[in-house]
Fold these 3 entries.
Entry 1:
Amino acid sequence: MIHIKRELSDLASDIILPYTFFEQDMLCLDEVSLKCYLYLQARVQAGHSSLDEEELAQRLGVSERQLAEIFTILQKRKLLQLTGEGCELTDLRKRYVERKDKQDALQQTRDRSEQEAIIRQINDTFYNGLMPLPFYHSIDRWFTEYQFEGSVVYALFNELKRYETLHSDSYAEKIAANWASKNICSFKDLSNYYEERNSLNRYADILRKRLRQKQPLNIYQMEFLERWLQEWQLDFSLVDEAFKRASATPQTQSFNYVEGILRNWKEAGLANLEDIYVYEEERKQAYQEKGKRRQKEERKKSARGNFSQRDYSADSFEEYYRSLDFLDREDQS
């Protein structure tokens, strides 16, 4: 006689078979072993705690020796535990949680080792073993908060080297936050991001030469350019034109000043240089027309002052009525 019981816990008290069984166990069992396990689960769910071995073998269409082999297979899969009293069905949810905890602990250990290796590589490659202490705290936070892979962190220090800012932890944090805002975690994410920036970098190089700037545009300037070209979808010719106009003002080469110009054009719906020229010509004509109307109004006002005020006294009305009588007599004659 087989006595069956199931280990119960709050995690699985209301679930017969959790998803983990179908994901991790079902496909690994042969047909007869799967049939046996499902039948045992059904019996337990129905409230039956004992089962005759011979009856079970008959239902499955196997011999008692084959049944013993099936129990051994299920025990190796940790789906049940054979005891002196019979067998005990494993709480699959509990087993999954325990396995997940072990896997997480192992993965954390593995990740930590990889992170430490990346930190050593960065320290040796970029700082000759003398990396400033703030970077250790920053890197640790990038791994935990931003979920950066080691390759992404290493690429970030390549960026710092490119801009000659290897000792600026605030600048490094600016790059890290920018990448995180674009959901960059893996090196593949970063590669896709760089591909999208290729055209932006070409325009950045053109702008750098226009501004006679020896160093590449820094990350703050690149944010302006990215907003104008990618977010606002402006044509680069408008950006170039805005910088030309800004160069004639005290705010020469000011990215904030140029952004003000571009924002005005954007809000006016101007898409190219021709639109700008037409728009400005229309504004010029409208301004001139407004000036003409103002001058005309001013002339009218000054003309009103050249006429003497009429006399509206009682004598003047009497004289007016006499003139009307005279006109009537003229008409009658």
Entry 2:
Amino acid sequence: MSTTDTHLQIGALLFEGIDQIDLTGPFEVLSRVPNSTYRIFGKGGAAVRDGRGLRLTPDAALADAPKLDVLHIPGGFGQEGVMDDDEVLGWVRRQAQGARLVFSVCTGALICGAAGLLKGKRATTHWASFHLLPLFGAVPVNQRVVVDGSFVSAAGVTSGIDGALRVAAMLRGDAAAQTIQLAIEYAPEPPFNSGTPATAPAAVLASARQAVRAITAQREQTARRVAQRLGVAITA
């Protein structure tokens, strides 16, 4: 899969309430993949705002997207609306059928799940939604990046950069991915070791869980509804 002879079409889904780093972190990597074009597609082609208010504009509407070799599905609080949007989910399914790789970041995995792409797949997502993966028929794997055949999933937010580097290596080889990593000087040295529930101080974790309690409950309701639609058995 690492030959550079074939030009690659890489495309991402854009939607209202996206988490911009789920999009722009991987973009920083995947836009540098040799012999490729990276474009962003949104419903209707209109500009949207991310969860923090950053304005983002797609390159084109979903209907104008070419057949994609790599489908990039970001997450964010706006994922809730997408999971009930038949037009967008249909587009995701159609693009996924012909893609070399499908790459989800954060709760983008839940969008893939709503489109029926996670059945039987090993996958990960943001820690606050990790427990929802079985509702889509997925096998949860508590890793920063998980690869299952042509499906690549990254955990929360910044892990999208790690996942994108893995995708770049799968497409063009390790040396190409390492060159990209060096170009963007990706050598993280976080000042604190609180980036996962396992390492964060108890008080920090409790506060973080409280902050996302409402959206997590809403996501569970949506996931259970999707599970019924997909025919996935709910055990609890």
Entry 3:
Amino acid sequence: MIELTKENFQSEAVQSEQVVLVDFWADWCGPCRMLSPVVEQYALDTPAVKVGKVNVDEQMDLAMQFGVSSIPTLIVFRDGVPAAKAVGVIDMEQLKKLVEGADGSSAQ
């Protein structure tokens, strides 16, 4: 997983040829801590998808740019644009469907 900042967001997420899953989170956020192991496991299981994390306390500009008002928020970028979004804690199956739907492939 990649720590995304305003300095590397353009190159790592927007300009990526891969589908990119971005987890907007904060240290103090209990639901974020619940979601984190799911996102980490997804990153390990799915090398074709780039996974990055944005700490909203440190990167408020990015959170505002993408309309993140509640955390955790997951945004899937495809071809440099947000293609899917989920707010709150989701399980692995929901995460897979979120990314697969944004990827244009059918969810199995």
